[in-house]
Every structure is written in structure tokens, then in C-alpha cells.
Amino acid sequence: MFDDDFLTFVDSKQEEKKSSLKYKVLIVDDEESVHAVTKLVLGSMSFQGRSLEMFHAYSAKEGEEKLVEIDDIAVILLDVVMETDTAGLDLVKIIRDKLKNKIVRIILRTGQPGQAPEEEVIVNYDINDYKNKSELTTEKLFSSIVTALRSYSDIIKIERNKISLEKVLASTSFIINLHSLDTFFSGLMEQIVSLTNNECSLKSNCVSVYMSFYKDNKLTFNTGTGIFKEKSKRTNLFDTKYKEVVSQTLNKRENIKTDEYYTVYHHNEDNTALLMLFEGDINSINIEDNLLNIFVKNMAITYDNLIMSNDIKESQKDTIFMLSEMAEQRSREMGKHVKRVAYFAKEIGEELGLSKNEVEELFIAAPMHDIGKIAIADRILKKPGKLDYDEFEIMKLHSQKGYDLLKNSEKRLMRTAAVVAHEHHERFDGHGYPQGLSGDKIHIYAKITAICDVFDALSSKRVYKEAWPLDKVLNLIKSEKGKQFDPKVVDAFLARLGTILEILEEYKDNISDEAFIFEE
Questions:
Q1: Of 171, 256, 291, 400, which is the most exposed, with the fewest CB atoms less than 10 Å away?
Q2: How confident is the model over 100-121, as a mean pLDDT?
Q3: Which one of 123, 155, 187 terminates a domain?
Q4: Which range among 114-128, 355-369, 448-462 shows the weakest confidence by mean pLDDT?
Q5: The total number of structural domains that make up the chain
Q6: Could you give the CA distance from residue 330 to residue 326 in angstroms, rounded to a whole number?
Q7: Which residues, other chains included, contact 339 with Cβ-Cβ below 8 Å and sequence gap of 6+?
């Protein structure tokens, strides 16, 4: 009465051919005879190519302990009356409410139906089947187990798809960073494992996947799950047991499936190739090649799009740095002041706990703090000596001019840079310019840029002064804590001082523009 493709009974010769994966069944009953009979009846059963592994508990309390210890039990055969008249029903509540296990299938078995009327139990308890022990023949037990396992298998597949999809969706918000490719494609690979109709439990590594991309025959990116998750396992792939099958796949440009490995290959029009290697329970991979090929093709296209997006972003960064440096080069000295400020700001932003996206935004916006200087006349901007009062008042206009230049952009990043340009000369105590903002009214990006700007200006040589000694610069910054600078930003600056000094040393041959002129 059962489909041979799903339910079989194996002898000792077939045992070796079975999958190493097993469905776990927990028997919770206080009668040892029930355990013995159940094991005898189900001991040789196999469903979807997987045999059963049985676990035993002789009380509801012991059953709870088993469920905590073993997190992938598929089916529970549960007695009602054990240490108490409602011990089994109480355990159902614990499983669903306390342990939050909604996946395991529960078959309630009772020898005293009067203690737990079927209609009441079915309505009030989250169980999947109800059987009277007196009517639970071998055939009906088989039917109940098959139904429960099929249900469990479907739920596992849905849950795995849900988890993989959540990873993919979560990763998309970070795709703007190249290093997020690993997160993004890791989620996609798990989705592929789900598509293969693999019956693995959610937490097992029955199938491991290696994935790599080649551009113009050169390896550009690789990642993996399971045994390939560690980078060291992927580095020397061609020098290991996979050498032959990988080389054969790349040379023939076709999928190869053996008892040990399954490789998938795709080469698109942009000369990007994708290689996937599956290892593990290969027999469980029963997805049609054309469906898998479509999925892999789309992954290759996604990879190209991500690389293109990253290239565009990097080009935008380069353009911003170039424009910012053009403004600096109109000043009395040329240098890479804007790049140093950007890298200083990145360190401080990370120390303050800004998000990855915020740090990236700060890194790009900070270099444009002095963009308004392109509107300042050369006679002032390039004056070799100290500015007089009127000239300094004109110089101060660069904050407003930078803001006016960027504020109407449709791009969020440019509007953010406008705020940085506008507020980077404001002071924490309210005595800055051009608006006289104070405290938290000043944008955090501007506060960070301000201290980076001053530190770099004082630490760098100019035509009208030598670079200040480090201890003198630090003493000034500490003295301005709570005055010119936000105390939290000063603390973050000092916490990252070692790295900031390394950045300053790396660009030591470049001379920066001024931020403030301090009276000695």
C-alpha cells in the first residue's frame, strides 16, 4: 500500500547502500514493552532513502531533556499518562511554547483514551496525530510515521528556504561594499542546496558547496559552505583531491556528476565563468540540470552586476577625491590633505560605533569639507603670509559656499557632504562659524571632520610654518575638549591615535591645506 519510492524495508546487504543520514524518532513512554515493540516494528523502515534512528525516554521529564540535547528530532511517539495523568499533554505544551519547537511532528499514543478524549486533545493541543494504543496496528503505525516524516520533510525544506532567503535579503543592504559578496553568495549557495531537494536537517553539513568566479581565466572571487567555509580549505583547491574534477570541468566547460562530486559550470558573454563544486551526499542532489543551470547563470550575471556597481562606486570616490584635491591645490600648498582627513575620519567613525554604511558615507563626504574654496579668490587663497581680519572673513565664506554648491543635489551623499562642508568649522561650545551651532546640533560627521582637519593642518608643514611637534598638537586637542571639539570625538581620536599616526606617516610627503590659524 506504500509507494516503493518512499517507503522500503532493507536487509543487511542493503544497509551499506543507505544514506548515512537518518530520521530521528523519539519514543516517550513509561512502558518498556512499548519501546521494544516500536523498535521491532520500525527498526528496518526506510523513508526517502533514509533509515530511522530511535531515541528512548521513559518519562515526560526525560523526553524534554532529550529534546534539548537533540535538536533535529523529526517525530515523537508520545504517551499521555506517565509520571502524571497529563504528563504527555504537558510535554506538548513545553515543546511548542517553552522550547519553541514547531517543526517536530508529535503523534500522541494513549492506552487510556478516557484520560485524554481525542476531540478535546486535537482542539487544545498542537499535535499531529492521535492514536489509541489498542488500535495501533503495525500497518497504522507505518502510516502514521510515513505521514509525519513527509510533513517534517516538507517543513524542513520550507524553513531552510526561509533561512536562506532571509540571508540573501539581509545581505542586499550591504552589497555596496565589495566584501559583502561573500555574505550574499553564501546565502545564494544555501538556497541552491535547498533547491536540490536535499533532505538534510537544517544544521547538518551533508552537502558542502564551493563556488568561484573567473574573469578572463583568472580567479577573482571564491567562497563556500560546509567544509569549504574556511578560506584555507579553498586556497589550494587545485592541489587537493579535487584537482582532477575541477580541471576537467574547466577544460570541458560542462557539468560533471559522479558518486563523490557534482560540478556545475557556466560561462557568460562578459567572459566571466562560474564554477560550483558539491561534495557530500551527492545522491540527494536530484534537481534537474536545466533548473540549476538557470540559477547558476543568474548568479553569474549578479556577480558581474555587483562588480560593475562596485567599479562605479570606486570611480565616484576617485572623482570626489580629485575634485576635493583640486580645491586644495588652489590653496597655498598642494598635498593629499583630503585623503588623510578621509582616512582619519574613517578610524574615528569606527571607534564611535557608526554603522558600516555610515563609516563609508563619512569616508566619502569628509574630503569635500573645503570644496567651497574653489569660490575664494586667488589673492586670498594663495596669499603666502597670514591673512588679515578682512581676508580671513572672506576665507570663512568657503563653508557657506561649499554648502550652497552641494545642497541641491539629488544624491544623498552630496547632500551629506554639503552638511560637512557647512559645519566643519562649527565649535562644540557654539563659538564657531558660519551658524554658531553647538553640541548635538552639529552633525557627527562634521564634528569628526573638524578634529581630523585641525590635526592634519597642525601636524603638516606649510609655507608659513613648520609642522607642530606631536605633543604640542595633542595638548591643544586635549585642551579644546568640550570647547572646540566634542569630548566623545576627542576620546575616539585618541583611542585610534596609533593608526592615525600610521596614516600620517604613510602620506608624510604630502602637504595639506589649512583648517584653522591658531595664535600661539
A1: 291
A2: 83
A3: 155
A4: 114-128
A5: 3
A6: 7
A7: 321, 325, 367, 507, 510
Q: What cell was used for 191?
A: 538556497
pLDDT digits (tens, 9 = 90+) for 84-103: 989 999 999 999 999 999 99
Q: Are strands 45-47 and 7-9 parallel, antiparallel or unpaired?
A: antiparallel
Read off the CATH number of the domain in which 339 is found: 1.10.3210.10
Same domain, 383 and 302: no
3-state secondary structure of 63: helix
Q: Model-level pTM greater than 0.85?
A: no
Residues in the chain: 520
pLDDT in tens, 139-166: 888 889 999 999 998 888 787 666 655 6
Looking at 66, 131, 346, 373, which residue is catalytic? 373
Q: What is the pLDDT of residues 257-281, one digit of tens each?
A: 887 788 888 887 777 788 888 887 7
* Domain region containing 189: 173-307
Q: Which residue has the cell 563653508?
A: 399
Q: Dihedral (C-alpha) 225, 230, 231, 235: value to the nearest 10 degrees?
A: -90
Domain-embedded: residue 352: yes
**Same domain flag for 299 and 388:** no
Q: Mark residue 164 as left, alpha or beta (left: phi above 0; alpha: psi -120 to 50; beta: remaining).
A: alpha
- pLDDT value for 105: 95
Q: How far apart are CA 191 and CA 233, in angstroms?
A: 22
Active site residue 18: no
Q: Where are the alpha helices (DSSP H) in 352-469?
A: 356-365, 378-381, 389-395, 398-406, 412-423, 444-459
Do both 440 and 499 map to the same domain?
Answer: yes
